Each structure stands twice: as structure tokens, then as C-alpha cells.
Fold this sequence. Notes:
Elements: E1 46-50, H1 54-68, E2 76-80, H2 91-96, E3 104-107, E4 114-117, H3 119-130, H4 138-168, H5 174-197, H6 208-221, H7 229-232, H8 238-248, H9 251-258, H10 278-281
Amino acid sequence: MSDTTPYTPPAIWQWNKESGGKFASINRPIAGATHDKELPVGRHPLQLYSLATPNGVKVTVMLEELLALGHGGAEYDAWLVPIQEGAQFSSGFVAVNPNSKIPALMDRSGPVPVRVFESGAILLYLAEKFGAFVPKEPVQRAECLSWLFWQMGSAPFLGGGFGHFYAYAPEKYEYPINRYAMEVKRQMDVLNQRLAAHEYLAGDAYTVADIAAWPWYGALAKGQLYEAGEFLQVQEYTHVVRWANQIAQRPAVQRGRKVNRTWGEPASQLHERHDASDFDTKTLDKLAPAA
């Protein structure tokens, strides 16, 4: 529906009530920790603190792809961060990511632990650490990084813009939904035109650009995001659909999508990942129900 009550912003904005909607309980205009709690540390060099939102899936897919290539140093522990419970505001998590957003990574493989936050930064850090999924030739590298940062800049319009007003806002209003639906369809057209001429975003090779974009735009193209497939007529973007389906067939992608996932089919949920064998023994369908 349309909002028939005009809103006049006050001279000074004040936080005097919850904003409403699905994430109202964790939205606040200040940063920092709300409670003291240290993060767990497992036995692997890489410690990931995350949830299987699209941004979280980027990193678990990247790690599984690196392991599939034989990079043993990419072994990792993936710890669940239930963001709707405010776990991202613990003192331990804020020490790794002062922005209190998943995913966050600690690399303990060297003498001094390295923290990395923001999903794009984590992907690029891992790509450079292991020498994989970013081309070395300058022209191809520039193309890859351009699409990687395109995704980082574009997805907030899809998630925080369209997704919020279409799926999560306490009331639906025509103007913001139309505004962001238009932008999301424009973005899908950008991808569709690119993928009409190239197998992957950076060209002929699968790169971090695809790993970054697939959890957002691949899910959207397959009708799995915000239940908005029909509304946005995503099937019209045939080259994006082809690309989304092609990447979805990769075994590492299928594994990465399960990690830190707490919704969907039980077989698709691996709440925490501490060993490669966990995919065979610890998905939710294989765990004994609580007594």
C-alpha cells in the first residue's frame, strides 16, 4: 500500500523507539559490545565466526573451494553466530569485527593472529594468501576485482534496500519497494548482459567475483531470496539463471552453503563445521533429536 501520511523529519533525529520489523531487537545507532563473552577457538589455522546469510556463504564457499584445490592450510573451524540473539555484540566478536557484522575471520597460522572482517576483504585475503581465484595477469585481475567490488557496493541495495522493504519492514509502502525493485532489476540486467558474453563474471575463469556474487544474485535468480522471484520476474534473466545453476553444481559450493545454516531442510544444515567429515555425520538430519 502507499503511505498516505507524510513524514516530516525533526531537526534532530533521536533514538526513542524501536524501528519495528524482523531485526528491530538488534538495530541500534551505536557501536561496541553489549556484553562480555570470549569467542571459541578450534584447532585449525582459520577461525570463522559466521552465519549462512549470503555474506557468510561467500566465505564458507571460498574455504571449501580452496580445500578442494588441495590447500590444506585452508582448514577451518566455523562457529555459529546467531545474530538475531545479538551474539555479534559480544566483546569477543567486536574485537574481531568492530562493525559487529558477520562474517569475521581470525587467521592463527602465523606468530601474530590476523583479524579480517567484511566479506569482500576476507575473500581477497584468502585469495592472496593461497594464490587462487584471482587472476595474476593485470587486465584479468582488474576485471575480477571490479566485479568483486561491484558486488560489495550493489548488494546493500538488494538486501538492506529491496529485501528490507519487501520482506522485513513492519509495513509495506509502495515508494521504497518500487525504488529498490527498480534498482535490483537494473543490477540483474547488468549481470545478465555480462554473462551473455562470458561464462563467468571475470571472463572464462571462475573467480572470487563469482563466489561473492552467487550467494546473493544466484539465490535471487533461483527464486530463493525474499520469496520475490515472481515479483521480480527473475526467470527473464536467462544468462544469470544459467550461471547460477552452473555454480550451484560445484561440490564445494554445495558444502559451503550448508555451513552455519540454521534453516531449511535438515540435511542442508551444518550448524558448525570443525572437520571435513562433519558434512557426512553432523548435518541436522544426522544428529539425534534432543531428549
